Amino acid sequence: MAMSMDFKTYVDQACRAAEKFVNIYYETMDKRRQALTRLYLDKATLIWNGNFVTGLEALTNFFDMLPSSEFQVNMLDCQPVHEQVKQTQTTVLVVTSGTVKFDGNRQHYFKQNFLLTAQSTPNNIVWKIASDCFHFQD
Amino acid sequence: MHMTVWRNRKPLEREMGEDTQDGTPGSWFSVTIPSGIKYDRTWLMNSIQSHCSVPFTPVDFHFVKKGARFFVQEASTASALMNVSYKICDEERRKIPVFVSPSAVPYSVRDKLKPEEMEQLKLTLIKRFDVSKQALDLQRLCVDPDLVGHDIDIILNRRSCMAATLQTIRKNFPELLSLNLSSNSLYQLDGLSDIIQMATRVKVLNLSKNKLKSVWELSKIQGLKLEELWLQGNPLCDTFPDQSTYVRAIRDRFPKLLCLDGQVLPSAVTTDVDTPCVVKPCKGNYFGSDELKSLVLQFLQQYYLTHDCGDQQGLMGAYHEEACFSLTIPFHPEDPDPSSLCEYFKDSRNMKKLKDPYLRVQLLKHTKHDIVHTLCVLPKTQHDFSSFVVDTWFQTETMLCFSVNGLFKEVEGSSQGCVRAFTRTFITTPASSSSLFIMNDELFVWDVSPKKTQSTFCIPVPTPSTSSMPSFYWEQQQMVQAFSTQSGMNLQWSQKYLQDNEWNYTRAGQVFSMLKTEGKIPEEAFKEIP
């Protein structure tokens, strides 16, 4: 597949997708946790502080068990992933960092990265998580 | 005992009137523990005392950036302390260095109060002491009429004055419970830190209306078991975005605190209830398999060795032609002193702060030339392999993604010696030889709290020996695919041929061709596996 857009456009698209996605993700995580798995692909993988979770069912169970959260993001960066590497769908690497409190306990610093994949529908592009890696940084 | 350290130095001039407690002249030495700030002071001093063959009295203990320093008299004490260097092990099993060198007279000795001044000080303090409450009110001490009348300057910022005051307290008010130091223009608490030994029972401390700029000053008196503390009217109070962050920061240092700035605090959240890790215990590294682990670790070793050496050619070889790189630093108002990350500031692409779409494109470095150029302009680093925690979070045939969390030290420039924490996220793709090309590289750098600073780094791991035999699952899979395509055999048989020939692709190919012409390869080798 030839690059149908130039690099600048790729970057723009990645940035807009990343920003919008990250807002939705953390809002959903904090306030509508039961809807969170809708943001993941069926075969998505999650590595949470070294623990490996994959598949929608396992992800649903995992997020159910995770106590209520309060996220505060203070770093966001993103890069488009070259199509040579991720061949079929447009992919964006998103990296975030900030603080989180679970169930009112003490604050942790966290670092998280996502691989977002574009799923085109007739009307627009929907981004979903193919891979999620979360780690406390204390 | 041979003191090689200063054999060729000028002998320290004896200052007139400089004398020890018992009046005999002596020379002074400073004793420095680099990164001493991360240790509990009592533990540190006790450890040094127990390892030192000669008992000593530390004078003017204080902090110099991240190091701890105190003074001793007598060359024999100094040399005994030199021997303590690298003998004490800390919690991380690192040996603590102790550096000793000649120094000028410490301030509290040089500016020591005369006996008659000490006597007047004692009388003044007695007037300000409330025996029923065991409380001492030292507000605005320097303008006390008694002291002024006798022409005595008690400026508590001066080490000598603070030391004299604390000594007086220890002698005369050993059961002191409450101390008011409000409005004394205090801008640092090094001198006050001796209070932990001099007035151990103090539970109420008023430091309001002074000039303390950072909450970090309070770490110097952390040994006090305070129940009430006043800090309002200090610049440090304005460094917090909100009240609860402020309260938390103070409580972190004084867990038994009940009252701050006159307000009763809600009962403390028990600090031993940890996190949601009851859900899943927090593990360190994650690798999909042992083979992946060695591949990734070897890559990281080579990458960081090349990176730390400033080897531009080497770095170019690690990146794909059209790779992307970006760098970020945190963005939050309570970040202490952002100028400490100033070398990274202009390249930071933190989208929480950077909103201009043009700049967002500019700051994403594209093509390996741009990237290597950017990397080589950043401060030179030394990465600490022992601190690395790695997650391998995604892989396909064309893509291997992993993140590294760890520490590095800046080895030159204005922040030389500064330790930074980083997380680096890599998306790589297999290169033609036994290595990986970096397609995406994201680096996040932030400052590390003093407690986490490592004083010594591990010696970098020596370059792994390169062998022409690929031993990693990753390349093996690539080989199997290629062999299968070329030979027409299915993956299973292709793998078998390669394995039998020790993964020597050429040899396996030759064997295959030979056996094929001889018709010795069974049909099933070419059958598709369902």
Would you summarize the structure shown here?
Chain A is 25% helix and 46% strand. Chain A has two helices and six strands; from the N terminus they run αββαββββ. The longest helix of chain A has 25 residues, at 7-31.
What's the topology here?
The complex is a heterodimer of chains A (138) and B (530).
Chain A (H helix, E strand, L loop, with lengths): L6 H25 L8 E9 L2 E4 L1 H10 L3 E13 L9 E12 L4 E14 L4 E12 L2
Parallel strand pairs in A: 1-6
Antiparallel strand pairs in A: 1-2, 3-4, 4-5, 5-6
Chain B lengths: L27 E6 L7 H11 L7 E6 L2 E7 L1 H8 L5 E2 L5 E2 L2 E5 L3 H4 L4 H13 L1 E2 L4 E3 L7 H5 L9 H14 L5 E3 L14 H4 L5 E3 L21 E3 L12 H11 L5 E2 L2 E2 L25 H20 L2 H7 E10 L13 H4 L11 H6 L2 E2 L1 H10 L3 E15 L4 E11 L8 E12 L5 E12 L25 H15 L3 H10 L4 H13 L13
Parallel strand pairs in B: 8-9, 9-10, 10-11, 11-12, 14-19
Antiparallel strand pairs in B: 1-3, 1-6, 2-3, 4-5, 7-8, 12-13, 14-15, 16-17, 17-18, 18-19
Helix pairs in contact in B: 4-6, 14-15
Structure in words:
The complex is a heterodimer of chains A (138) and B (530). With 138 residues, chain A is of the alpha+beta class. Helices cover 25% and strands 46% of the residues of chain A. Chain A has two helices and six strands; from the N terminus they run αββαββββ. Chain A has a six-stranded mixed beta sheet with strand order 2-1-6-5-4-3, covered by helices on one side. By secondary structure, chain B is an alpha/beta fold. Chain B folds into four domains: 96 residues, RRM (RNA recognition motif) domain (Alpha-Beta Plaits); 150 residues, Leucine-rich repeat, LRR (right-handed beta-alpha superhelix) (Alpha-Beta Horseshoe), CATH 3.80.10.10; 152 residues, Nuclear Transport Factor 2, Chain: A; 50 residues, Helicase, Ruva Protein, domain 3. In chain B, the strands form four sheets. Chain B has a seven-stranded mixed beta sheet. In chain B, strands 15-14-19-18-17-16 form a six-stranded mixed beta sheet. In chain B, strands 2-3-1-6 form a four-stranded antiparallel beta sheet, covered by helices on one side. The termini of chain B are far apart.
